[in-house]
Design brief:
Layout (H helix, E strand, L loop, with lengths): L2 H5 L22 E6 L4 H12 L4 E5 L2 H15 L3 E5 L5 H13 L3 E7 L14 H29 L2 E6 L12 H21 L4 E6 L25 H14 L3 E2 L3 H12 L2 H12 L3 H7 L3 H6 L4
Parallel strand pairs: 1-2, 1-4, 2-3, 4-5, 5-6, 6-7
Bound molecules: NADP nicotinamide-adenine-dinucleotide phosphate.
C-alpha cells in the first residue's frame, strides 16, 4: 500500500447516507470503517459511501485490491481513504488495526462489519483450522470491533453499526453448519446491541442478505446460492443504507428473501433444517473438499 494513501488522510466531517444523519454530525476526522472492503458487498459499501462523500478506512487482507479501490474512489469522489490490510482471523492483527485507527486520530462513526466467508461440507471433512478462522472472522472480529468503536459512538451520542449477517442466520444449515451458526450469532448480537442502544444516537443494523452475486460462492464450488432471490451487491448495499436512514434494526433485501426469513420463524426447526439440507445439497461440498478454498489460497498473500 502506498504511503500516500496512509498519510493523505486528514480530519474532515463525514456525512451520513443521504445526508440525513441519525443524530448531529460527528466531530472532525469521522470515517466509515468497512471490513471485507476488497471485494463484493464490502466494495459496494465503499463505492456507495464514497459517492455520498464519506471518508473511509478499508480493511481486508488483499492489500493491492484495497489500494486500487482507494485510488479509484479518491480519484472519482474526492474522498480520503485509508487502507488497513488486516487478517481478521488474527487477534493481534485486530489489535494493531484498532491502534492504527486511534493513532491516526480518526473517529469511526460508521462501522460496517462485513468481512466473512463460509466453509462448506460435512464437518468431518472440513479443516478444523479453517472453521476456527471462520468463527474468528465472522463472529469474534465483529465483537472486537464493536468493543473498540461503539463506546466512542455512545459517548458522542452519534454513530451507526452495520453487521452483515445472512438469511442463513435465521435457520440451521447442514453442510454450512459453522457459517450459519456465526451468522445467527451476528444476528442475535446485533439485535441485542440495537436494544441496548435504543433511544441513543447510535443505530445498529443486522443486514441479512439472501444470495448475492459476489466471489463468495467461489469457495462453495458454485456461482450462485441455491436458495432465495439473488441480488447484486449494489442492490443489497442500497437497501442496507436506506434501512439505516429509517432506523431499521434488521434488513433482509428482496421481498422473497424477507418472506423466507419470516417463514423460518414459524415453521418447525426440523422441517427448515431438512429443507436447508436439500437446498444446499450434497454434490457441491464434494467439490469444495477437493480444492483449496479461496481463504486458504489467499492466506499466503497476507502481509
Ligand atoms: N454473497 C452472498 O450470497 C452472501 C449472502 C449472505 C451474507 N453474505 C455475507 O456478506 C459478507 C460479504 O461477503 P461477499 O458476498 O461480499 O463475499 P466476497 O466477495 O468473498 O468478499 C468477502 C470479503 O471478506 C474479506 N475477508 C475474508 N476473510 C478475511 C479475513 N480473514 N480478514 C479480513 N478480511 C477477510 C475478503 O477480503 P480478503 O480476501 O482480501 O481478505 C473480502 O473483502 C460476508 O460476511 C458474507 O458472509 C454474503
Amino acid at each position: 500500500m502506498s504511503e500516500e494513501l496512509r498519510s493523505g488522510f486528514t480530519a474532515e466531517p463525514c456525512p451520513f447516507p443521504g445526508g440525513r444523519p441519525p443524530s448531529p454530525p460527528g466531530p472532525s476526522g469521522s470515517v466509515a470503517l468497512i471490513t471485507g472492503a476488497s471485494a463484493g458487498i464490502g466494495a459496494g459499501y465503499a463505492e456507495a459511501l464514497a459517492a455520498r462523500g464519506h471518508d473511509l478506512v478499508l480493511v481486508a487482507r488483499s492489500a493491492d485490491a484495497l489500494a486500487e479501490l482507494a485510488r479509484s474512489l479518491t480519484e472519482r469522489h474526492g474522498v480520503r481513504v485509508r487502507c488497513e490490510p488486516t487478517d481478521l482471523a488474527d487477534s493481534a492483527a485486530i489489535t494493531r488495526l484498532i491502534e492504527a485507527v486511534s493513532d491516526a486520530g480518526l473517529t469511526v462513526d460508521l462501522l460496517i462489519n462485513n468481512a466473512g466467508f463460509a466453509s462448506h461440507g460435512p464437518l468431518q471433512q472440513i479443516d478444523p483450522g479453517l472453521d476456527h478462522r471462520q468463527v474468528m472472522v465472522n463472529a469474534v472480529a465483529v465483537v472486537d470491533l464493536c468493543h473498540a468503536f461503539v463506546p466512542g459512538m455512545v459517548e458522542r451520542d452519534h454513530g451507526a453499526v452495520i453487521n452483515v449477517s445472512s438469511l442463513g442466520g435465521f435457520q440451521p444449515a447442514p453442510y454450512l453448519a459453522v457459517y450459519a451458526a456465526t451468522k445467527a450469532f451476528t444476528l442475535s448480537f446485533s439485535q441485542s446491541l440495537a436494544g441496548e442502544l435504543a433511544g441513543t444516537g447510535v443505530r445498529v443494523q443486522a443486514l441479512c442478505p439472501g444470495p448475492v452475486r459476489t466471489g463468495f460462492f467461489d469457495d462453495l464450488g458454485t456461482t450462485e446460492g441455491a436458495v432465495g432471490q439473488t441480488l447484486t451487491a449494489e442492490q443489497v448495499v442500497a437497501r442496507s443504507l436506506r434501512g439505516l436512514e429509517r432506523g431499521q434494526p434488521i434488513v433482509v433485501p428482496g421481498w422473497r428473501n424477507a418472506l423466507a426469513a419470516q417463514a423460518s420463524r414459524f415453521l418447525p426447526r426440523r422441517l427448515i433444517t431438512a429443507v436447508a439440507k436439500r437446498a444446499v445439497g450434497p454434490g457441491q461440498h464434494a467439490q469444495q473438499a477437493a480444492r483449496p478454498s479461496v481463504d486458504e489460497r489467499r492466506a499466503e498473500d497476507v502481509p
